[in-house]
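Sorry to interrupt, but I need a hand with the structure work. Leave the record below and I will have a look:
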Amino acid sequence: MPVNTERHDRVLVVRIEREEKRNAVDQEIADGIGAALDQLDDDPELWVGIITGTPTVFSAGTDLAAARDGSPRTERGGEYGVIRRGREKPLIAAVEGPALGGGFEIVLSCDLVVAARTASFGLPEVKRGLVPTCGGLFRTPRALPLNIAKEMLLTGDRLTPERAYSLGLVNVVTEPGEAIDGALALAARICAVGPVGARASLRALERTVAERDELGWEATTDATAAITGSDDIREGLAAFFEKREPRWTGR
């Protein structure tokens, strides 16, 4: 199975395991993430979730070779089974290796981030003539200073875990191979507090940003419409699949 789960007392670990495709998300993986997070939401004995990838990569985002109608999604969780999910229980991203495009947007949909020194974070869509469609356009400037968000969105360049930590995106930086241990330790700290109070606090925080999320999704729809049918999007995707540098025309 490309998505597997394991329980650690009151913590559910969700692993994306499709390393041969850099953990790129197709519908099967979206369904697996969605089912795992349904379990987290619905089981009263589970208090915290952790989502992680494999030792060399968190996720490269949407599997463009498999995608036909945008990012794979589920009814309850939206894109990737997690992006639009209404959650009450904390979710931690444990990142080893790159979290790029939709992979970074999965990280942005989590509440806390633990990153190994091998991790990197980026939104390379602009390098393909695309725009982030799974929350990156508005969650990046929420998680990072505005000019850093602009830099990521306009250049497609990556953040190191150390820089992401200094900017407040990452909560804990670990040595390589220890991100999941760091996330479990952070989860244990959360489980040590009152779960009702923790969930109420998380709900209150989410309510403060819900209206801005709606505006963000509308802006994302507009940005997607602006690139649809452009020469640049066709060239960017062709260059990606042909493994060459794109030849932009700006049209």
